[in-house]
Write a structure and sequence with these properties.
alpha/beta, 5 helices, globular
């Protein structure tokens, strides 16, 4: 397993990686959790994760993988609130949630974690973010319809192939 995986929670802005909406346009913060565990927006509309997200994050966490959430959303408070209400904060060691370039997010994550870019695996639904972040040497996987176990497997396989080109850094 790779030392660090970068998950983009920018599903909140134009990402549909953890949940199927943009937090700043498709739902209405603030959010709240009902006694049955469901999460609703201000207008009482249900807000949900993609079905396999909890299992993906749990699997990575159980392997001791360092994870980060990065989002370019302008709805910073709403994005953070959803991570909290869904109980996802416990999985993310690092968070970079603010408008701006994904390159800036990754530079800050690198500074905070000390993990080289080529030891990071990034999942995102936007091709432009994939292109930008790939220039740093990060292994990137396009997420067309939400994070899933099969995409995780694909990403880990891509990461393993790319690790061959950096053997001295992986010992």
């Amino acid at each position: 397993m790779p030392e660090s995986l970068q998950f983009d929670s920018q599903i909140l802005i134009s990402d549909y990686t953890l949940w199927p909406f943009w937090v700043d346009t498709h739902v209405d913060p603030p959010f709240h959790k009902k006694s049955d565990g469901s999460v609703l927006d201000r207008n009482q509309r249900p807000v949900q994760l993609y079905p396999e997200v909890p299992e993906v994050l749990h699997q990575l966490d159980s392997e001791g993988i360092a994870m980060a959430a990065a989002s370019r959303t302008g709805e910073i408070r709403g994005a953070r609130q959803l991570l909290d209400l869904f109980g996802l904060n416990r999985y993310f060691r690092y968070t970079e949630i603010y408008p701006g370039s994904k390159i800036t997010h990754f530079q800050r994550l690198h500074q905070q974690s000390g993990i080289p870019f080529h030891q990071m695996l990034f999942f995102d639904d936007e091709s432009r973010n994939i292109r930008d972040v790939a220039t740093l040497g990060v292994v990137c996987v396009l997420v067309p319809r939400g994070m899933s176990l099969s995409l995780l497997k694909e990403g880990l396989e891509s990461f393993a192939r790319s690790s061959v080109s950096h053997p001295a850094d992986n010992v």
